Amino acid sequence: DAGVTQSPTHLIKTRGQQVTLRCSPKSGHDTVSWYQQALGQGPQFIFQYYEEEERQRGNFPDRFSGHQFPNYSSELNVNALLLGDSALYLCASSPVPQRGGELFFGEGSRLTVL
Amino acid sequence: AQTVTQSQPEMSVQEAETVTLSCTYDTSENNYYLFWYKQPPSRQMILVIRQEAYKQQNATENRFSVNFQKAAKSFSLKISDSQLGDTAMYFCAFLISGAGSYQLTFGKGTKLSVIP
After folding, report:
1. CB contact, 8 Å: B102 with chain A?
2. Nearest-CA neighbor of B108 among B34, B46, B22?
3. In this predicted structure, what is the pLDDT of residue B43?
């Protein structure tokens, strides 16, 4: 049973570029959350998708957008990249209902912005 | 807004010994969940233990147990019989129980090193 898979694992971009990160949730999970983990920090919630809609959003600018597909996989898009966007981006999935339940994390996508 | 504070950036423990990681949180909510997640060097974060705020009994999972003090807003993790595989970043996290809230709030983490 495959867990949460993310791609790419590493990527380097320059300021102003755009990036798309991908996530496939654990089998049987239909909810996907995205977190940004800057170096030396805890993960920060970006948003969560359920039934192909953004269900909740954290304190991130509109440059961060997402999408969920009918097969529950998800993409995170970041436009107009800034140096401060350099971080590990974590995808986490969970089944419904999630209330207080465990999140299953992928290994993350390490984004470096030069 | 909820905040989670982990005051110990780094800790170390001898193999087979016991170590306690601290976590405090701030919230005006009465119903919530608390978690400890472990992030080994391989980066994949995994759940260690969870606690529901309405339960007075402290959660335990094998060698891992918590000391949950609701009034003090404290949620520490005790690891007994430490093993080399326990070496990792440990994050304390908080989730409001109410409908419409799906955001986990994490602390900055504690880097634990288990010394042979």
Report:
1. yes
2. B22
3. 75
> Distance (Å, rounded) from C-alpha B34 to C-alpha B30?
12
Q: What is the pLDDT of residue B103?
A: 87
Which chain A residue is nearest to residue B91, measuring alpha carbons? A42
Query: In angstroms, what separates the C-alpha of B83 from chain A's closest C-alpha?
Result: 22
Q: In angstroms, what separates the C-alpha of B89 from chain A's closest C-alpha?
A: 10
The answer to whether residue B55 neighbours chain A at the CB level (below 8 Å) is no
Q: Is A105 helix (H, G, I), strand (E, B) or coil?
A: strand
* Amino acid residing at A102: E
Tell me what the mean pLDDT of segment A34-59 comes to. Answer: 94
Interface test with A, best of B45, B46, B101 (most A CBs within 10 A): B45
Per residue in B57-103, pLDDT (tens digit) is: 999 999 999 999 999 999 999 999 999 999 999 999 998 877 667 78
What pLDDT digit, counting tens, does each position of A57-86 carry? 999 999 999 999 999 999 999 999 999 999
Calpha distance A24→A69 (Å, rounded): 10
Cβ pair B51, B59 in contact under 8 A: yes
| CB spacing of B44 vs A99 below 8 angstroms | no
The token pair that represents A58 in the structure block = 């954290």
Which residues are A3's β-sheet partners?
Answer: none
Question: What pLDDT band is residue A95 in, cutting at 50, 70 and 90?
Answer: confident
Cα separation, B6 vs B12, whole angstroms: 15
Contact A58 B103 (CB under 8 A): yes
Q: Is B111 on the interface with A (CB under 8 A)?
A: no
